[in-house]
Specification:
7 strands, seven-stranded mixed beta sheet, 11 helices, 18% strand, binds S-adenosylmethionine, alpha/beta
Length: 290
């Protein structure tokens, strides 16, 4: 495993190389899985991806009072744009460590005429340029997995530092529930290929993650297992990957090892996701103790 700087450079390179490939998954660049709600059409991916954004906002319990809302690991800011449309009187700040994402996301925000509602900052969510106790709400959607360690200590410490006492956070991500050494050979292979392909040092470990949240002053922690809710969108991944791969092949475009690793990880995610005793996709909420 590399140093923190090396890991972060790997994240930057990964998102620079695969950045536009995400358009195949989501035309509005929702870089996460979707949430299936009863009566939705499971074949329509984008509404499920959008629904995940709405689920995060619902669990943030937004009222008129909250003004400082942070998206830690904002990608191309699709969740920020959904937020800005839903709460036009509020502002949201997105943070990403990838300069290319800031440039592209700003263009997308302008195209959606939401540039005045969304501020994007190039930065590291383990070293945020914000005062202690300054944020009213904080969320991280499929982004804390890029932080070091299975407990994601540096990410949690920083998130809790900037959050105001008594205020709420929401984290959505994939979580392992056992140590990878305890996985059988097939699941361990998939796990290792996925973390390599998606530039993750490891997935967060649910037990260690919750313990660290408690140590850093979180309370009222609730964990919702969304694995079945995301399953319909996860099932899209192999088809999207196959279609994308064949399209690039026919166009004669050569994919480099980073892009190929990303596609492979999307395929293998399905296998890992089926091992429910080892892996779950969860929404974690809580508040910072007063
Ligand atoms: C899978 S994308 C999710 C993006 C967005 N939340 C979404 O759902 O569309 C993960 C994001 O985390 C960001 N990220 C990873 N490590 C980071 C760090 N140390 N500081 C800030 N952002 C980081 C990446 O740049 C990327 O934008």
């Amino acid at each position: 495993m590399g140093t923190k700087k090396e890991l972060q450079q790997e994240v930057v390179n990964y998102y620079q190389d695969t950045g536009l490939d995400y358009r195949e998954w989501s035309p509005s660049f929702n870089m996460h899985f979707g949430y299936y709600k009863f009566l939705m059409n499971p074949f329509h991916r984008e509404p499920m991806l959008e629904e995940m954004n709405h689920l995060v906002f619902k669990h943030l319990h937004i009222s008129e009072k909250e003004n400082v809302i942070l998206d830690l690991g904002c990608g191309l800011a699709a969740p920020c744009r959904t937020f800005a449309k839903k709460y036009p009187d509020k502002k949201i700040t997105g943070i990403t460590i990838v300069p290319w994402q800031i440039e592209q996301a700003n263009l997308l925000n302008i195209a959606a005429d939401l540039q005045n509602n969304i501020q994007l900052i190039l930065g590291d969510y383990t070293d945020l340029p914000f005062e202690d106790n300054s944020a009213d709400r904080v969320y991280a959607l499929e982004s804390c997995c890029h932080s070091e360690g299975r407990d994601k200590a540096a990410f949690i410490k920083e998130m809790m530092r900037v959050l105001k006492p008594g205020q709420r956070f929401v984290i959505v991500d994939g979580f392992i529930k056992k140590e990878p050494q305890e996985f059988g050979p097939l699941v361990r292979y998939c796990y290792n290929q996925i973390i390599k392909g998606w530039a993750l040092p490891s997935f967060p470990h649910l037990y260690l993650f919750k313990k660290k949240l408690l140590e850093e002053g979180a309370e009222e922690i609730q964990i919702k297992d969304l694995s079945y809710r995301v399953a319909p969108s996860v099932l899209h991944a192999p088809f999207v990957v196959l279609y994308f791969f064949l399209k690039k092949l026919l166009q004669g475009e050569k994919l480099n090892s980073v892009r190929l690793g990303h596609l492979k990880a999307c395929w293998l995610g399905l296998i890992l996701g089926m091992h429910r005793r080892k892996f779950s996709y969860c929404l974690v909420t809580g508040i910072k103790k007063k």
